[in-house]
Specification:
The protein is mostly helical. It folds into two domains: about 200 residues; about 60 residues, Roll (Nucleotide Exchange Factor Grpe, Chain A, domain 2), CATH 2.30.22.10. Helices cover about 65% and strands about 10% of the residues. The protein has five helices and six strands, in the order H-H-H-H-H-E-E-E-E-E-E. It has a three-stranded antiparallel sheet. Strands 2-6-3 form a three-stranded mixed sheet, with no helix packed on it. A hairpin with a 2-residue loop joins strand 4 and strand 5. The longest helix has about 55 residues.
Length: about 260
C-alpha cells in the first residue's frame, strides 16, 4: 500500500543498533581487566532513538489508515447516493439498476477483502517484531550480567545500581510501548472495518462462510484437492479467496481447498 514504511527496513535499523550494542559489550568483556570505558555509554540514548523512529513509522501507518477511512467514507456516500437514486426506479428497471450498482458493490467487496488481508499482515508483523526484539533484549541482558560478574568486588559494589538500572532498561517492559502502539493501531483498524461491515449489512452484501462446509459448485471453486482421511470428502479445509453474495445471489465465487475422495 502506498505510503506505508518498509517493515524490513525498520527491523534492519533496529537489528543494526542491537548488533552495535552487542559488539560494545563484547569489547568490555575483553577489556574487563581495568581498561577504560570505550566511549559512549551503552543503550539509553540509542534505544530512545530507535523506539522514536519506530513510533514515527507507526504514525505513518496510522496516517495511511486514516486515509483509508476517508476512502471508505467516500465509497459509502457514493454507494448510498446511488442506492437512494435506484429506489425511485420502477420495478421493471430493477435489473438495469442492479447492473449499474454492481461496480460499486464489487468495490466494497474488494475493500473488505483488502482490509482483512492487511490486518492479518499487521498482526503477523507485530508478532515478529516483538519476538525478535525480545530475543535481542534477552541477549543484551545476559551479556550485561556476564560483564558485571567478572568485575572486581569494589566495582560491583559501586556499579550495582547502574547495573540494575541497565537491566531494567532492557527488560520486557521495553516491549510494552511497542505492543501498545500496535494494539492502538489495530483497534483503529477494527473501527474502520466495523463501519464497512455496517454498510455491507445495509446493502445485503454477505461474506460466505466456507470452512468446514461441503464444497458447493454453485458458490465455490475448488482450486486444490487435498488428502485428509480424518475428514469427509468434499469438506472445505481452507479458503484461499473469500466469496460474497449480494441480495441472496452469488456476487463472487469463493476459491477453496477441499478434501478429495479417499
Amino acid at each position: 500500500m502506498d505510503g506505508w514504511p518498509d517493515q524490513e527496513q525498520i527491523l534492519a535499523r533496529l537489528r543494526g543498533w542491537l548488533n552495535q550494542t552487542q559488539a560494545e559489550c563484547q569489547w568490555l568483556d575483553e577489556q574487563a581487566a581495568g581498561q577504560p570505558w570505550p566511549g559512549e555509554p551503552i543503550g539509553l540514548y540509542q534505544l530512545v532513538e530507535q523506539l522514536t523512529a519506530l513510533r514515527h513509522d507507526v504514525k505513518l501507518l496510522a496516517k495511511a489508515a486514516r486515509g483509508m477511512d476517508e476512502g471508505t467514507e467516500a465509497a459509502r456516500l457514493s454507494l448510498q447516493a446511488a442506492i437512494e437514486q435506484f429506489r425511485s426506479v420502477e420495478p421493471r428497471e430493477a435489473e438495469a439498476a442492479d447492473k449499474a450498482a454492481r461496480p460499486l458493490v464489487e468495490a466494497v467487496v474488494e475493500l473488505d477483502e483488502s482490509l482483512r488481508r492487511c490486518r492479518g499482515v499487521i498482526v503477523q508483523a507485530k508478532a515478529r517484531i516483538v519476538e525478535e526484539l525480545n530475543a535481542e533484549l534477552q541477549e543484551v541482558r545476559q551479556q550485561l550480567d556476564r560483564l558485571f560478574r567478572i568485575q572486581p568486588w569494589w566495582r560491583r559494589f559501586l556499579c550495582g545500581p547502574w547495573h540494575e538500572a541497565s537491566k531494567n532498561l532492557y527488560s520486557g517492559r521495553t516491549l510494552d510501548g511497542c505492543r501498545a502502539v500496535f494494539d492502538s493501531f489495530l483497534e483503529g483498524y477494527d473501527l474502520i472495518h466495523k463501519r464497512l461491515d455496517r454498510l455491507m449489512d445495509e446493502q445485503s452484501i454477505v461474506r460466505m462462510q466456507c470452512l468446514g462446509t461441503q464444497a458447493d459448485p454453485n458458490r465455490m471453486t475448488v482450486v486444490e484437492v487435498v488428502s485428509d482421511p480424518s475428514r469427509r470428502p468434499g469438506t472445505v479445509i481452507e479458503e484461499t479467496r473469500p466469496g460474497y453474495c449480494w441480495k441472496g445471489r452469488v456476487l463472487r465465487f469463493a476459491e477453496v481447498k477441499a478434501v478429495g475422495e479417499q
